[in-house]
Each structure stands twice: as C-alpha cells, then as structure tokens.
C-alpha cells in the first residue's frame, strides 16, 4: 500500500511542478480546472503526468488538461465525451480528442463535472469487460 501512496504523491508533485512552470493567467485557469476535476472524480482517482501534461487516472486515463501558447485544453481521453456533450461545447474549438478554451477562463464547472463523470463511467465500463 505504501508504494501506491508514494506513487500517488509523486504524481501530485509532478503535476504541481508542471503548474508552477505555467505563466499566468493560464496557471490560475488550470488550477481551477484541476480543482473542478478533483471535485468530480472519485477519491481513488490519482494525478499523474501523462504525455507530458497533467492528468487524472482511474482504471486508465480519465482526463487531462494543459496550457499552450494561446489557449488551454481539456482532454477527456477519448472522443465519446466530446460527441456526447457537443451541444454544450458549442462556442469552443474542439477536435477529436480536445476542447480548447481561453487562457484566462476555465470551462464551466457544471460541464467539467458532467464530462468527468461520463469519463468515469466509460472507464468503469471498459474495466468490467
């Protein structure tokens, strides 16, 4: 059990190091996203750096988020959540696996919560198969 806790703490520290390198206003935006995701995800979800960006893991990759030069992104780790919430994502630039949003304005909390819960359900369904 100590190994799992250590790796969970290592992931959290790695995410905090990533966020510390992000310039404002994107850092505050990503910190808000992180808090929204943490509030919506089950307690057993862990943080990690995956593909060089902060992510939450639960029975596989759950969601990730990152800052770029001219936008921030939210990655629901699969196209199904983006398709499922297409109506609510009108006004955001989306691609197959990412949602772009302004450096200074996180996605709406209610939308993040619904998307995280959909991703949890997706991962739990995959794990049962």
Could you walk me through the main structural features you see in this protein, from its secondary elements to its overall organization?
The protein starts with a helix and ends with a helix. It has 129 residues and is α+β, with helices and mostly antiparallel strands. It is built from four helices and six strands; from the N terminus they run H-H-E-E-E-E-H-E-E-H. 47% of the residues lie in helices and 20% in strands.
**Major sheet details:** 6 strands, antiparallel
Terminal CA distance reads 26 Å
What is the mean pLDDT? 92
How many domains, as an integer? 1
Low-confidence stretches: 1-6
The CATH architecture designation is Alpha-Beta Complex
Q: What is the string of helix and strand elements?
A: HHEEEEHEEH
Q: Please report the number of helical segments.
A: 4
Could you say which structural class the secondary elements and strand pairing correspond to?
Answer: alpha+beta
Q: What CATH first level would be assigned?
A: Alpha Beta
CATH topology (fold) name: Aspartate Aminotransferase, domain 1
List its salient traits.
129 residues; alpha+beta; Aspartate Aminotransferase, domain 1; six-stranded antiparallel sheet; 4 helices; 47% helix; disordered N terminus
Short description:
With 129 residues, the protein is an alpha+beta fold. It is built from four helices and six strands.
Helix-strand blueprint:
Blueprint: H1 2-21, H2 26-40, E1 46-50, E2 53-57, E3 61-67, E4 72-75, H3 79-84, E5 93-94, E6 99-101, H4 109-128
């Amino acid at each position: 059990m100590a190994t799992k806790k250590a790796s969970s703490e290592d992931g959290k520290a790695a995410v905090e190091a990533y966020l510390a390198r992000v310039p404002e206003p994107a850092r505050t935006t990503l910190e808000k996203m992180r808090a929204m995701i943490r509030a919506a995800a089950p307690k057993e979800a862990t943080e990690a750096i995956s593909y060089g960006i902060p992510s939450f893991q639960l029975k596989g990759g759950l969601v990730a988020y990152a800052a770029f030069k001219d936008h921030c992104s939210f990655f629901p780790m699969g196209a199904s959540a983006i398709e499922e919430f297409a109506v609510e994502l009108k006004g955001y630039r989306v691609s197959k696996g990412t949602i772009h949003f302004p450096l200074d304005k996180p996605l709406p909390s209610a939308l993040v919560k619904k998307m995280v819960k959909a991703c949890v359900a997706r991962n739990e369904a995959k794990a049962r198969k």
